[in-house]
């Protein structure tokens, strides 16, 4: 295992009035995509609180060897690293640190530089090694005193070693966090490869077997199979039953008979059968060729999954965790246990490090159950469920429709597809949609059902008539703010139309992420990746040009989510949004800030503007103001991203996750809770009556009255070197692990393919 480090010195004011010494922070990084964002965040947050920051190059080896491996970091030294994979400060395997003598040398090097705080980024091996170092710390200092290498006073001054960990692992196999740094980027690499392979597989009627990483953990294999609609998946956690070979081949053959021209099989590298025999990608290929005669190819992704440009999610996750790690060290005391900062839902948490390390992560229940639902069919019919898209198209809509259709069919319902939203509903553009009709939908952007912004109020009579004609017993609406308004109008019309007294559920799907009742919407992640990718290219285009500032306009209506979070992921210097009013003085201050920045080695600026942030301070106005005020110091360019944020040719992974919709059979529904929005609130998915969300909504500007991501704006400003306050009231608090044991034998998961 390889590691990377840096150290941080906190100011006297953070230490305490009677402790006139400097505290250092050392960061260990196991090389994964997204690590550099964490390095950048810790360095800049450390400098923000008045600290000196030091890199330890080449990981634990650098800590053991000392010398020039430990160098002071500056604000500029972490510039332009957000979009770089791996770790820019080096990583190396270190056998010496596994020995007591090696850890003794490392302790000496740390004490000589005043290092008493260690921040570790890596997997369980990295964290376990750091915790062992912490446990041995007092004994190591005693040995150094006895050998005369340090004084008694130095040992007393550095008597406690504090540790904070951040988890970096593409396997997402660490207990206590929903996502580890690097996982989302690895999934993006897999999906990109699958999208590319599917075109050639479709053309040549081929079967492709993809081998992905996961020696002991099948997270990458399972979630990528769920996201891309793979036909079959093999993972270590659930060895297939005896006879799986015949079952898989039967399902592949059925898929071809229904007209599918390709098959995708995903195999985790550690997959085995029930008897412990390895199941390799070549074994699966030979099986398909021998039994079915299909033209079959194997693709082993290998270290491609570890590299490349970090996704927007990984950059934001790593940045938030880096800042949280600094805060945790600021609050640490001699009795504070080593902790890990992680993400649970949408909330930062701190967990005891060794509690996490000692528990094997088993977080597959929901994904396994979902994959089963999307791959196993029932025949008996129960209720008629209509599915429609409403509002502007958003990447992920098709994946949501596919999931809803297959879940509904699995539960025994008949699904009806409504074309062109409420307008198409009123015109009778309704037809039954079958299992195979949604094959291949996960990778397609936009809305294959068709979607319009038309609200139902003026068509309510015709919509009620169509519901009666088709005997619709439940309604699923996937869309943006118009879908939310539409559900409110349908509920209000129930008193006049009994046909509308059925269960109704809305799933938020909009790039703007402006729906009350949900922290995140389908499509927002894809839009953020589009913004981040474009900003990366724009910055790269200026790599040979000095002193240039780019003004970029994002979508979002009056909601500044894309501008703010996109700015955080892209490393923007400023982001103008409606929710945070600004005036000419703020614009002038930003120009002055960029003018000072141009005097450093970072001679490039990036400014994002939400499209409706101000009626008067338009993109053209800001561009002209920056051009005029920056004359002689920097020049400007502007770019309006437009609809490229809205529709992608493929769906990014976070937007391809399943939509779990279960309709309960009933005769009549006219209560508030029978018209709900399914949203993500902090740590949980919750159903909320839409009528109860009215008080949380600014209907004029089509945004929620309270938005969680506004708390990220100070973080963005800090990392851009602005003087600002940072509210730590929402920072993570030390919690304990609650282990939920998953009994795989009791799961109703069946190894059927995702039959397309």
UniProtKB/TrEMBL annotation:
Q: Which domain of life is it from?
A: Eukaryota
Where does the Phosphofructokinase domain start and stop, copy by copy?
A: 34-328, 384-651
Cofactor(s) needed = Mg(2+)
Per its record, the protein catalyses: beta-D-fructose 6-phosphate + ATP = beta-D-fructose 1,6-bisphosphate + ADP + H(+)
Which pathway is this protein assigned to? Carbohydrate degradation; glycolysis; D-glyceraldehyde 3-phosphate and glycerone phosphate from D-glucose: step 3/4
Q: Which Pfam families does the protein's record reference? A: PFK
One cellular component term from this protein's GO annotations in UniProt: membrane
GO MF terms here are: 6-phosphofructokinase activity; AMP binding; ATP binding; fructose-6-phosphate binding; identical protein binding; metal ion binding; monosaccharide binding
For whether the record's keyword set contains Coiled coil, the answer is no
Which EC numbers does the record give? 2.7.1.11
Name the GO terms of the biological process aspect: canonical glycolysis; fructose 1,6-bisphosphate metabolic process; fructose 6-phosphate metabolic process
Tell me the keywords, alphabetical order: Allosteric enzyme, ATP-binding, Cytoplasm, Glycolysis, Kinase, Magnesium, Metal-binding, Nucleotide-binding, Transferase
Primary enzyme class: transferase
Name the InterPro entries for this protein. 6-Pfructokinase_euk, ATP_PFK, Phosphofructokinase_CS, Phosphofructokinase_dom, PKF_sf
Q: List the residue ranges forming a coiled coil, or say none.
A: none
Family membership: Belongs to the phosphofructokinase type A (PFKA) family. ATP-dependent PFK group I subfamily. Eukaryotic two domain clade "E" sub-subfamily.
**Name this polypeptide is given:** 6-phosphofructokinase
What is the organism of origin for this protein?
Cyprinus carpio
């Amino acid at each position: 295992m390889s590691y990377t480090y840096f150290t941080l010195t906190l100011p006297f004011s953070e230490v305490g009035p009677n402790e006139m010494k400097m505290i250092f922070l050392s960061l260990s990084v196991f090389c994964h995509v997204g690590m550099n964002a964490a390095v950048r965040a810790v360095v800049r947050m450390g400098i923000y609180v008045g600290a000196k920051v030091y890199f330890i190059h080449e990981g634990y080896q650098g800590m053991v060897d000392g010398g020039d491996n430990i160098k002071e970091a500056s604000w500029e030294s972490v510039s332009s690293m957000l979009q770089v994979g791996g770790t820019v400060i080096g990583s190396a395997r270190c056998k010496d640190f596994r020995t007591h003598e090696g850890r003794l040398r490392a302790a000496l090097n740390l004490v000589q530089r005043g290092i008493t705080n260690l921040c570790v980024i890596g997997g369980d091996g990295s964290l376990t090694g750091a915790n062992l170092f912490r446990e041995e710390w007092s004994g190591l200092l005693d040995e150094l005193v006895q050998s005369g290498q340090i004084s008694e006073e130095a040992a007393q001054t550095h008597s406690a070693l504090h540790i904070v960990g951040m988890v970096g692992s593409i396997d997402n196999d660490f207990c206590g966090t929903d996502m580890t740094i690097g996982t989302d980027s690895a999934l993006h690499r897999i999906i990109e490869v699958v999208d590319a392979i599917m075109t050639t597989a479709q053309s040549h009627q081929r079967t492709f077997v993809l081998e992905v990483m996961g020696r002991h953990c099948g997270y990458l294999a399972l979630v990528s199979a769920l996201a891309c609609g793979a036909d079959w998946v093999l993972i270590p956690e659930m060895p297939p039953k005896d006879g799986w070979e015949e079952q898989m081949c039967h399902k592949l053959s059925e898929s071809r008979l229904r007209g599918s021209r390709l098959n995708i099989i995903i195999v985790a590298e550690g997959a085995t059968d029930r008897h412990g025999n390895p199941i390799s990608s070549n074994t699966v290929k030979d099986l398909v060729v021998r039994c079915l005669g299909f033209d079959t190819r194997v693709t082993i992704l290998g270290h491609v999954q570890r590299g490349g440009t970090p996704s927007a999610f990984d950059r934001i996750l790593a940045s938030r965790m880096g800042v949280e790690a600094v805060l945790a060290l600021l609050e640490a005391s001699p009795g504070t246990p080593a902790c890990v900062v992680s993400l649970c839902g949408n909330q930062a948490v701190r967990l005891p490090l060794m509690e996490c390390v000692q528990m094997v992560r088993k977080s597959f229940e929901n994904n396994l159950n979902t994959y089963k639902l999307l791959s196993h069919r029932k025949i008996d019919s129960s209720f008629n469920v209509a599915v429609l898209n409403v509002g502007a198209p958003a990447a992920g809509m098709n994946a949501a429709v596919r999931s809803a259709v297959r879940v509904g069919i699995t539960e025994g319902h008949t699904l009806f597809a409504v074309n062109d939203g409420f307008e198409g509903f009123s015109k009778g553009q309704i037809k039954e949609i079958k299992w195979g009709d949604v094959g291949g939908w996960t990778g397609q952007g936009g809305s294959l059902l068709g979607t319009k912004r038309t609200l139902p109020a003026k068509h309510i009579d015709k919509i009620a008539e169509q519901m009666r004609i088709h005997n619709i017993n439940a309604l699923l609406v996937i869309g943006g703010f118009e879908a939310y308004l539409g559900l409110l109008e349908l509920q209000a019309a129930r008193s006049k139309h009994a046909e509308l007294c059925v269960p109704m559920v809305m799933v938020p799907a909009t790039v703007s992420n402006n729906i009350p009742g949900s922290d995140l919407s389908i499509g927002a992640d894809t839009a953020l990746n589009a913004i981040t990718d474009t900003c990366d290219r724009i910055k790269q285009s200026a790599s040979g040009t000095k002193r240039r500032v780019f003004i970029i306009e994002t979508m979002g209506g009056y909601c500044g989510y894309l501008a703010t979070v996109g700015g955080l992921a892209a490393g923007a210097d400023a982001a103008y949004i409606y929710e945070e009013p600004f005036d000419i003085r703020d614009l002038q201050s930003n120009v002055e800030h960029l003018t000072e920045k141009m005097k450093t080695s970072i001679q490039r600026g990036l400014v994002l503007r939400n499209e409706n942030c101000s009626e008067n301070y338009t993109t053209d106005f800001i561009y002209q103001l920056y051009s005029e005020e920056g004359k002689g110091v920097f020049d400007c360019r502007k770019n309006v991203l437009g609809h490229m944020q809205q529709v992608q040719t493929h769906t990014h992974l976070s937007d391809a996750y399943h939509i779990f919709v279960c309709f309960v059979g009933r005769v009549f529904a006219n209560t508030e809770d029978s018209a709900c929005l399914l949203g993500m609130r902090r740590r949980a998915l919750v159903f909320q009556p839409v009528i109860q969300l009215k008080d949380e909504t600014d209907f004029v500007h089509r945004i929620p009255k309270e938005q969680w991501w506004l708390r990220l704006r100070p973080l963005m400003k800090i990392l851009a070197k602005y003087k600002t306050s940072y509210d730590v009231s929402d920072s993570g608090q030390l919690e304990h692990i609650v282990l939920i044991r998953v009994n795989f034998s009791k799961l109703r998961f069946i190894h059927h393919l995702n039959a397309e």
